[in-house]
Every structure is written in C-alpha cells, then in structure tokens.
Amino acid sequence: MPAFGALVAEPLYLLADTAIVGHLGSRPLAGLAVAGTVLTAAFSVFNFLAYSTTAAVARAFGAGDRRGAAHLGVDGCWLAVGLGCVLTVLGLTLAVPIVRVMGASTGVEPYAVDYLRISILGAPAMLLMLAGTGYLRGLQDTKTTLVIAVAANTANLLLELLLVYGFDLGIAGSAWGTVAAQYGAALAFLAIVARSVRREGAPVRPDAAGIKANARVGSRLVLRTASLIAAIVTATAIAARISDDAVGAQQICMQVLLFLAFALDALAIAGQAMIGRFLGAGSSVDAKSAGRRLLQLGVVVGVLFAIAVVITRPWLVGLFTNDAGVRHLAMQALLVVALLQPVAAVVFVLDGVLIGAGDAGYLALAMVVATFGVYLPAALAVAATDAGLLWLWGALALWMLARFVGMVARYRTDRWAVVGVQPPG
User: Fold this and answer.
1) Which of 20, 37, 299, 341 fits a 20 to 30 Å CA distance from 211?
2) How many of the other CB atoms lie within 10 Å of CB of 414?
3) pLDDT digits 0-9 by tens, 143-193
4) What does the alpha-carbon distance between residue 226 and residue 38 come to, in Å, rounded to a whole number?
5) Alpha-carbon distance 290 to 17, whole Å?
6) 3-state SS string over 39-59?
7) CA–CA dist 3, 290 (Å, integer)
8) Within a 10 A sphere around the Cβ of 140, how many other Cβ atoms?
9) Closest of 266, 258, 261, 280 to residue 63, by C-alpha
10) Are 151 and 209 in contact (CB under 8 A)?
11) What is the structure's pLDDT at 369?
C-alpha cells in the first residue's frame, strides 16, 4: 500500500501540469503533450536506476549483507548524477529539433520548446530520485518513498499554481514548479542514503566495478524501456500529425493510462522487492507463491480500474480541458484505456516479478517483439491511412496484448526463479 501511494503520487507531476496548462488553451496543452512525452521517454529510459537497484539491493538484503546493500545504493546514486548531467546537456542542445521531429505545429512549437528546456534542468534530480527510490525499495522500505513523493507532489502543485496564475508565467511557470519539487525530493533521498552508508560503514566513493555491473543489467532494462517509450512517442507523433485536437486528447488519455499504470505498478514494485529478497535468501517456493498472489490482486484491481474509468470519463475529460473537439476525441479513446486495464494489470505484475528475479534479458526480448513486431506496423498503418485517433488506440491495445502473451509464457516456466545473491545472466 505505501508503494501504491508513492507510485500514484509520481505521475501526478504531469497530471497537475496537464490540468493547469490545459486551461491556458489548446496550444499550450498540445505543447505540453509534445514536451511531456519527450520527458517521460527520457526519464523512463533510466528507470533501470530504480529497478536494477531494487533487485540487487533486495537480494543482498535477503542474504543478510546490509553493508553490500548500502554500497549498491551508493553506486546507483553516482551513476544517476552522471547520466542526469549528460541528459541535461543533450536536452538543452537538441530541444528545437526534438520538438520538430515530434510533429509540433508552428503554433505549438514555442510552448513545447520552453517547457522542455526548463524541465530538462531537473534531470540530475529526477535520476537521483530513481536511484534513491530503488535503494529504499530493496530494503523493503516503501513508507519513506511515500512520504517524499507526497511532499514533493504537494510542493509541485502549490508552486505551479503560484507561478502560472500568481506570477502569470504560463507554461514556463508549470515547468519551473516541477523542477523545484524534483530537487527537493532528490536532496531528501540523498540524505537518507548517506545516513545508511554511515550506519553500515559502506564506502561513499564510486566503485567502478559496481557501477559497471549496474550499467550492464541496466542496459538490458534500457532496451526494454526504450522499446516501451518508442510506442508512446510514436503514438504522440502520429496524433500530432492528425490535428491539434487529436494530440491534446492523446495527452489526456495517455496521462490517464500512465497514472493507472503507476498505480498498478505498486504490485510490480512489491514483486521486485519480495521476489529479490526471497531468491536472495534461497527460497524459490516463496518467490513463486508471492508471484501468484500478486497476479490475483492485479486482476481484481485491473477490473476495478476499468469500471472506474468508464464511469468517470466525463469528469476526467472536463478536468483537463474545455475544448469541445478535444473532449469528444478523449471521451472515445478513454473507452479503450478502460478495456485495457485487466490485461495491463497482469503485464505490470509480471514485469515486476521478472525484474525482481533479474530476468532482464527476456524482458528486453519480449518488449522488442511486442513493440516492433506488433505495435509499430499497426501504428504506421494508422498513420498511412489517416484512420484517426481511435484506431491509433487500437494499435496500442494490440501492443498490450502482445506483451501479455510474452510475459505469461515466461512466467509459466521456472527459468526466472534462480536463487542466490547474484541474479542470472
């Protein structure tokens, strides 16, 4: 439950941005859709900083090696800061061409570029948050991450309201509020990791071997995540070429989908931490039992989410926009979002189980096949035929079903349940 609260709080950064910027007009909303998708892609590619750290720390924790677990946390933080600085430089340099590649219209481009250039300054903080979160999850501590997430999200909302409406800074004020909240949360995680390092007597210097091992496992997760992000980015790019109303509706529906995905991911995070701990302690039986229970809970939650989206569609759309064209398209696409929830629940839970087991190689392969073998041909067919936003969401539904098939096929074998401190591969 604490993991659920923390994960729900995370996507509220962009949900708050969407709600606030959406009332500034359709062009600022479309600009946020373009820049927000790029930022989600950039940050999500580095989710391995949380995922790989969670699995590795959980195995060390299960084996009773607390000092080793603290050292793994330090390695993750150093890697996060270095990658964050590189990402910031790239984002500032390439903001304009990135926005143009995303298909933003002439009227939307200035809003998207402003939001992207300001928000990318928070990259080091955001990646440090991921590493710190992974460390605490590996120690089975999800309560602290919940406290930090709620505090940061509250600060973000208040700052955005002040800067956007109080100081009339528009979409730039929304971006600055988010960056400030991210740095506050990053400092909190850094203080917690430093305290653990002192308590366990672990070194604070970067360890080349540890960082290399983290990066090796992370490279497989990056391939998996990059494939996932390719689906999201291409969907937004195709929607942007349909119309400004379509990309605005795409932003609303995608943010609702991601919000629900983060909520369902609470079970996946529990899976990462518990599976890693049980396998590190040498008990594949407990790991399999935890996986089964999480799947049962996931299906129940997915069905409840589907019902909730169908019932609350008018309210959800009205929360984000007053534009009639955007509202009409969003109402249609949200039906697809609702129908996907039970399938998505199984996919996300099994994602967490296999990440916790260290089965990153298979995860990467399954995601590449689903994205480039199933989704991309369908999405390109939609773009070529000008079929519209609803057909685009049909392509996204095929993508989720392909992921479902691949994940269930792996889970039904015992190849992922490898015991010991070191994960397979």
Assistant:
1) 37
2) 9
3) 888 888 888 888 888 888 899 888 888 888 888 988 999 999 999 998 988
4) 12
5) 36
6) HHHHHHHCCHHHHHHHHHHHH
7) 16
8) 17
9) 280
10) no
11) 93
